[in-house]
């Protein structure tokens, strides 16, 4: 009677199976959005941050390292203590502390970790590790911050901080992500690619409450992080430390270079700050504070401050004159104070005497001969050609453009060309009398302290320099440093011309900077005074020593400290003694520098 | 007696037995997977976890199967009404002696040995229906006989609704499939399907005005197509008005339902209503199954089911583990097994010589089909979440034993069909 009905039942069964399988096919095979949602649900991508490379000084002493900070974290839901008294005793906290932190943690989340004890020392951490397993829901979280054994060389080393939006945008390789730390200044920034290492990624599984359930697929897709490369800096920790000791309370720069290699032994920018202040969670606050400071402690003076070179530039003038054959050691000029002011000294003087006495009228007259060589009958044209030829020679001394030191933000200084005067006075409307200030290192000339130290290195090397740099070796290998720091730059002046100049610089000390003289250590130096329209002149001194086998070339700037023979020469002399002899034999000179009363 | 048992064993439908054990063991493997913790793996046989306990229940099921197979086939028919009455009494007593969980009193027993009478009452009802309907004069087209059948069916439903366990109560309505085979008029099914379709449309369509316009349009077409007697016009107009009134009233009725039932219905139409609340189960269950892909993530490699994203992962949502770890291929195998089993049961029911066996067979088909369909449909968001287990698969003693007894009584009846008198009308 109901013959067709069993067939209907079978069709119904088949239909149910078909509908279910069709729907399953659509969500399992056709629609892959569920797979992505499942991954978002249960798989967490955890970036394994590598250890940043360390930075050592030239003698293998540590300058920057990573300091692990241990925080004891608690997951309230899993945390369980039987014997509270024993727990408090083991972890060295009070009951109130436990209750307060536990309550706060529970309020935040019962399944996510919150700190129970912050910043545990390494020794306490070692102790805790043994009995940590007895307490479920507790674990140690390790962070690391940059640390400095001595609070020195802040400007040279630089600091790291969270990557900003612009840097993220420029990161075409997409290595960085929001919140990553990158070098923002100094060596930390320049050698970011070496120091940062390689990030690793771990995929871990979490359950519905966010609790870790172990690695995804036994870590098949995980990559280990690779620690950053350790760098050795050219900085001499002891010299840097001593330099900052001398420069405390002052404003200015000290740059010391090893002449034969261009390695920067010390680079001090005063006032300085403790690099430890710009690490960790306080970065933002401290940075704002330092940035607002009217003394500008963040301003890296050795590479960013520009001053007229003053008298020290006379040595460059002498060398160019000698090379061009316009000057000889015997060339003599009278100290004609009607041309330009000078102090009292025997007159007339030859070139040696001019350097020794820093005679302004001598260089006024000598420079005229260098500029106006009568290559054109038009005196304006003649001056223009002369100036530009002269400028090309000056640029070879590493002036007028960035040296290319391994810190970002270096200024180039300025050596004016005819274009500057054309712009200012009009073409053909200026001549030697317009630009004579250049002869004595004044006028439109601008030089940074590091360029000045480089000049001292050129004088020491008799005609060549290696671009000053802070990197000595990468991962212990000196050949890995950037190629540009292994290129010898010739300044285009023959070595024999330097002999007389060096002698005159050594002699000059007896006249202008007697304080700088050290027994059985011949220093060749030159004082300078950078005129300051806003107050007292800046005290400047460049030197190298020992004269016959130079180990150190140095430039010292002390702002508003007057004459170069006092503050700058004394500081430079102490630095040279410290570096070459290792200790200080003239405590009274050190006291004089520390006292800081240079205007009298 | 021994001789006759040997004869019966050879007549056992082994295909059904093989599919049964295949489903039970696939289920058992999935129960282990559902609770597997890769950080602290435990043996599948560990008695402290679900899979170990389920293995014991499977062992007890085997004992139950042996007992059924050696029993006299007449035993079930003769005792069917007494079994039914016993379970009615137990259902009445359950709210008083049972254990309350989440406001529901589902289980009775002493200590750890607990059973859910609701699961076994299905079996008792199936036996009672078969017994009452086997009479040669019984006719499902006659009102008198219809009422008898409905009485037996709805008595346990009423009692189960008191517990309250809506899901289990719904299962009893599956018996209308058996009624269909036994001659309950087709028009009621058309009406019922129409009623359900109208309900779903009313709930699914935001603005009931569109539905009302649609109904009017259909009625006008129907009137124009047939004879335009005034009786027909009045009848169709009244039916149309009734449908429109119903569509407006159902929203009101739903709003009077308990909130958790309301939500379960509304989530069906829009699982994104409240993905972290009501929609959570369905959303997470779909993510788990959907992330399985074609081949699945591999056994014990599932993340969604293991890490508690899917609730009830080893009981009502056990299909998620299968879907996630074995993908569509696994779904195909299991659904294929169920479909094969059900069709095989239809063929077996049709070859029965007496009416009792056939009706009982169709009861088994109805119950299994309903559980299979609703359970999987709810995990993939085709049906509201109702707490009913996947037969042979889900963790739990009562449901496994009840389905085992249900199925194997029919296997027993089938194996002894040659000894039975042909009373098929």
Describe this structure in words.
The complex is a heterodimer of chains A (about 600) and B (about 425). Chain A has a domain at about 70-145: Penicillin-binding protein 2a (Domain 2). Chain A starts with a helix and ends in a 5-residue tail after the last helix. In chain A, helix 13 (about 315-325) crosses helix 15 and helix 21 crosses helix 22. Chain A has helices at about 5-30, 35-40, 85-90, 95-110, 120-130, 155, 165-170, 185-190, 190-195, 235-245, 285-290, 300-305, 315-325, 350-355, 360-370, 380-395, 420-425, 430-435, 450-460, 495-510, 565-580, 585-595; strands at about 45-50, 55, 60-75, 115-120, 140-145, 160, 180-185, 200-205, 210-215, 230-235, 250-260, 265-270, 465, 470-475, 490, 525-530, 540-545, 550-560. Chain A has about 600 residues and is of the alpha+beta class. In chain A, strand 16 (about 525-530) and strand 17 (about 540-545) form a beta hairpin. In chain A, strands 2, 3, 4, 5, 10 and 14 form a six-stranded mixed beta sheet that branches. Chain A contains 22 helices and 18 strands. Chain B is mostly helical. Chain B is built from 16 helices and three strands. Chain B has helices at about 1-10, 15-35, 50-70, 75-95, 115-135, 145-160, 165-170, 175-180, 185-205, 210-225, 230-255, 260-270, 280-290, 320-350, 355-380, 395-415; strands at about 100, 105-110, 115. In chain B, strands 1-2-3 form a three-stranded antiparallel beta sheet. In chain B, a hairpin with a 2-residue loop joins strand 1 and strand 2 (about 105-110). In chain B, helix 8 (about 175-180) crosses helix 15 (about 355-380). The mean pLDDT of chain B is about 85. The interface between A and B is large, with 41 and 49 residues.
């Amino acid at each position: 009677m109901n013959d067709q009905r069993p067939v209907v039942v079978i069709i119904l069964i088949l239909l149910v199976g078909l509908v279910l399988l069709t729907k399953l096919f659509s969500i399992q095979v056709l629609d892959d959005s569920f797979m992505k949602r499942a991954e978002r649900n249960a798989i967490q991508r955890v970036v394994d941050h590598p250890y940043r490379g360390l930075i050592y000084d030239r003698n293998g002493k540590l300058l920057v390292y990573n300091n692990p900070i241990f925080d004891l974290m608690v997951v309230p839901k899993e945390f369980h203590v039987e014997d509270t008294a024993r727990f408090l005793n083991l972890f060295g906290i009070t009951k109130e502390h436990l209750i307060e932190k536990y309550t706060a943690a529970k309020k935040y989340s019962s399944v996510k970790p919150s700190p129970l004890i912050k910043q545990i020392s390494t020794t306490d951490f070692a102790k805790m590790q043994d009995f940590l397993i007895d307490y479920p829901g507790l674990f140690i979280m390790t962070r690391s911050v940059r640390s400095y054994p001595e609070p020195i060389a802040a400007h040279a080393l630089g600091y790291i901080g969270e990557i900003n939006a612009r840097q993220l945008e420029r990161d075409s390789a997409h290595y960085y992500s929001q919140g990553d730390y990158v070098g923002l200044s100094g060596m930390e920034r320049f050698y970011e690619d070496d120091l940062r290492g390689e990030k690793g990624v771990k995929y871990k599984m979490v359950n519905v409450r966010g609790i870790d359930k172990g690695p995804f697929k036994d870590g098949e897709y995980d990559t280990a992080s690779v620690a950053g490369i350790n760098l050795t800096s050219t900085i001499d920790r002891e010299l840097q430390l001593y330099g900052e000791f001398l420069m405390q309370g002052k404003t200015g720069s000290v740059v010391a270079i090893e002449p034969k290699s261009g390695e920067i032994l010390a680079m001090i920018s005063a006032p300085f700050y403790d690099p430890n202040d710009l690490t960790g969670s306080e970065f933002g606050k401290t940075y704002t504070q330092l940035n607002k400071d009217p003394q500008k402690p963040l301003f890296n003076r050795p590479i960013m401050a520009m001053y007229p070179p003053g008298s020290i530039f006379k040595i460059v003038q002498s060398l160019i004159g000698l090379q061009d054959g316009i000057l000889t050691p015997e060339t003599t000029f009278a100290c004609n104070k009607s041309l330009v002011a000078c102090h009292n000294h025997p007159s007339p003087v030859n070139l040696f005497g001019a350097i020794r006495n820093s005679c302004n009228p001598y260089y006024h007259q000598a420079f005229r001969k260098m500029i106006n060589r009568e290559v054109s009958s038009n005196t304006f044209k003649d001056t223009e050609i002369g100036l530009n030829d002269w400028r090309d020679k000056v640029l070879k001394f590493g002036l007028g453009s960035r040296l290319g030191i391994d810190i970002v933000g270096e200024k180039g200084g300025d050596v004016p060309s005819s274009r500057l005067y054309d712009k200012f006075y009009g073409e053909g409307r200026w001549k030697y009398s317009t630009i004579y200030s250049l002869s004595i290192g004044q006028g439109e000339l601008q030089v940074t302290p590091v360029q000045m130290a480089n000049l001292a290195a050129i004088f020491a090397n008799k005609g060549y320099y290696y671009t000053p740099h802070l990197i000595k070796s990468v991962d212990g290998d000196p050949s890995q440093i950037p190629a540009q720091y292994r290129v010898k730059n010739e300044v285009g002046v023959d070595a024999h011309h330097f002999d007389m100049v060096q002698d005159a610089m050594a002699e000059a000390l007896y006249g202008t900077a007697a304080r700088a003289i050290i027994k059985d250590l011949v220093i060749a130096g030159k004082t300078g005074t950078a005129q300051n329209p806003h107050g007292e002149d800046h005290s400047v001194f460049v030197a190298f020593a020992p004269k016959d086998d130079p180990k150190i070339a140095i430039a010292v700037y002390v702002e508003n400290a007057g004459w170069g023979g006092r503050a700058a020469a004394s500081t430079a002399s102490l630095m040279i003694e410290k570096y070459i002899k290792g200790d200080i034999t003239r405590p009274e000179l050190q006291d004089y520098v520390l006292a800081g009363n240079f205007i009298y | 007696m021994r001789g006759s048992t040997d004869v019966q064993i050879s007549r056992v439908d082994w295909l059904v037995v093989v599919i049964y054990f295949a489903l039970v063991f696939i289920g058992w493997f999935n129960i282990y997977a559902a609770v597997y913790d890769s950080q602290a793996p435990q043996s599948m046989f560990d008695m402290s976890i679900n899979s170990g306990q389920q293995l014991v229940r499977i062992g007890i099921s085997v004992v139950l199967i042996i007992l059924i197979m050696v029993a006299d086939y007449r035993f079930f028919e003769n005792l069917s009404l007494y079994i039914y009455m016993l379970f009615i009494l137990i259902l009445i007593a359950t709210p008083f002696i049972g254990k309350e969980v989440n406001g529901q009193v589902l289980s009775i027993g002493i200590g750890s040995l607990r059973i859910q009478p609701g699961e076994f009452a299905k079996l008792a009802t199936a036996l009672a229906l078969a017994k009452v309907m086997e009479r040669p004069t019984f006719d499902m087209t006659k009102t008198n006989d219809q009422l008898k059948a409905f009485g037996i069916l709805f008595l346990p439903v009423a009692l189960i609704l008191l517990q309250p366990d809506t899901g289990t109560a719904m299962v009893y309505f599956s018996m209308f499939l058996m009624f269909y085979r036994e001659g309950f008029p087709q028009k009621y099914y058309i009406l019922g399907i129409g009623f359900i379709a109208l309900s779903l449309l009313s709930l699914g369509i935001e603005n009931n005005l569109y539905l009302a316009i649609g109904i009017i349009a259909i009625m006008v077409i129907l009137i124009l197509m047939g004879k335009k007697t005034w009786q027909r016009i009045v009848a169709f107009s009244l039916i149309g008005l009734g449908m429109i009134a119903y569509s407006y009233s159902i929203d009101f009725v739903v709003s009077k339902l308990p909130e958790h039932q309301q939500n379960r219905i509304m989530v069906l139409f829009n699982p994104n209503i409240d993905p972290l609340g009501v929609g959570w189960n369905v959303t997470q269950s779909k993510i788990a199954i959907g992330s399985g892909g074609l081949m699945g993530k591999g056994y014990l490699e599932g993340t969604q089911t293991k890490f508690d994203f899917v609730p009830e992962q080893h009981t009502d949502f056990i299909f998620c583990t299968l879907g996630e770890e074995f993908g569509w291929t696994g779904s195909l195998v299991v659904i294929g097994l169920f479909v094969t089993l059900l069709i095989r049961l239809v063929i077996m029911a049709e070859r029965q010589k007496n009416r009792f066996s056939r009706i009982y067979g169709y009861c088994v088909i109805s119950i299994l089909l309903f559980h299979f369909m609703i359970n999987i449909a709810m995990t993939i968001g085709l049906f509201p979440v109702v707490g009913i287990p996947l037969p042979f698969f889900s963790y739990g003693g009562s449901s496994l034993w009840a389905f085992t007894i249900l199925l194997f009584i029919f296997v027993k009846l089938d194996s002894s069909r040659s000894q039975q008198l042909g009373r098929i009308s």
